[in-house]
Write a structure and sequence with these properties.
single chain; Pnp Oxidase, Chain A; six-stranded antiparallel β-barrel; 7 helices; globular; Flavin-nucleotide-binding protein
Length: 258
């Protein structure tokens, strides 16, 4: 029997509400992170500021030490940012690493029920907690930049001017988040109405219930004003088609009860 690796349950990551939807599986959680275009990163800006800071960032899971590692193995989260940003400064000033949280959510459907209180989403969400440190070596920085670039569009790195020049390397900072804990939550299926409402014909005869599948779709690439390449590159055309097909399939499958 194959046993998937899981994040250990700790007070900070154990799902309490609707815990039947929880997952601690590394592969499932890392997949949600890697298929979400924008990650939300939260941290404490300073002791004298009452509100936590939350930043939308681009990031990806990977392992510089073991680059062939799969999504179902222990990985770090690499985040891309500008050298002078507050988050990068705080990480630079934290010798033990800056505590941060990384969150990602994919919506797969609108679940429409008989009553407003029973409406829901089909969704996949993930939260990671860890300590962020600046990537110091040029080799690891290039590794992370390629990882993040290819997350945006698979195969894009090798189809651009690479490696980055000195100015680009200097102005870009990469954070490596060593993950301490993580959890995910997945909801799929149709509406779950109260039995008292399902037996009332005056309601069920006039209220439509079901799921509106939701998925992110990529349109045909539009060339820039300075583009000189006549044909859309095969890797880009293939990426758009595969993402659209995969996202639609996930949303339609999520209509079914687990």
């Amino acid at each position: 029997m194959v046993r998937n690796l899981e994040y250990p349950k700790k007070p900070e990551n154990t799902v309490k509400r609707y815990n039947s939807r929880a997952t601690y599986d590394l592969g499932a959680i890392h997949s949600i992170i890697n298929t979400t275009s924008v990650l939300h990163v939260s941290f404490a800006p300073s002791a004298d500021q009452p509100f936590p800071a939350i930043l939308p960032m681009i990031g990806a899971m990977g392992s510089f030490e073991y680059p062939s590692s799969g999504l179902d193995e222990p990985l770090d989260c690499y985040l891309h940012g500008y050298v002078s940003s507050r988050l990068m400064r705080l990480a630079r000033e934290s010798p033990d690493g800056l505590p941060i949280c990384v969150a990602a959510t994919k919506v797969d459907g609108f679940v429409l029920s008989l009553t407003p209180n029973s409406h829901s989403y089909n969704y996949r969400s993930a939260v990671l907690q860890g300590y962020a440190r600046l990537v110091e070596t040029a080799e690891e920085k290039v590794y992370a930049m390629q990882l993040i670039t290819d997350k945006v569009v698979a195969g894009r790195w090798e189809n651009t001017r690479v490696p980055p020049d000195n100015v680009e390397m200097t102005s870009t900072t990469i954070l490596r988040v060593k993950i301490e804990s993580g959890s995910g939550k997945v909801r799929q299926g149709g509406p779950h109405d109260e039995p008292k409402d399902q037996t009332r014909d005056e309601i069920t005869d006039k209220v439509w219930t079901g799921v509106v599948p939701v998925y992110e779709a990529l349109d045909a690439p539009v060339p820039s004003a300075t583009n000189k390449v006549a044909q859309i590159p095969a890797y880009l055309d293939r990426y758009v088609s595969e993402v659209n097909r995969g996202n639609r399939e996930i949303a339609l499958n999520a209509v079914n009860e687990p």
